[in-house]
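Pinned message: reference record for Protein quiver
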Amino acid sequence: MFGEPVIVACFEFTFSFYPGALKRCFQCRSRGDLGSCKDQFKFNGTTAQHEQGVEAIPCASGWCGKVIEGTGSYKQDDYGMATQRMCLQRGPSDGEERCAYTVWNHAKVYMCFCQGDLCNSADHQKINFLMFGVPLLLSAMHIVTV
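Predicted structure (tokens):
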């Protein structure tokens, strides 16, 4: 009766905003061209199960992070850039999602904070559009064609 797009949109809306819904974060670390944690991150909750070193773990705080080290003066070193994805014990004090340069573990890094299920997979603005914009667009198209 409602069609698949409406069901998908309702499920994603409920899962994203229901306070008791399970939130997960990707957990992994890669350096340079080695490993699967670096950007372009190509995994979702299902495909990560099959990739060594990449996990989708439960996150009690609901806040995920991504840290990129080596974007400074030593970028050309043999070690290259390191990317780490993780669950954060708590979000930023202002509760705002963002990406910015900061000092973390005594090093200057580029760090992103996001809140939501597996939000540290890619650019957070892209995820928000894919989670809400596409299902809503498909739902509207379905309603118009019915």
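Pinned by admin. Summary line: Helices lie at 4-17, 124-145.
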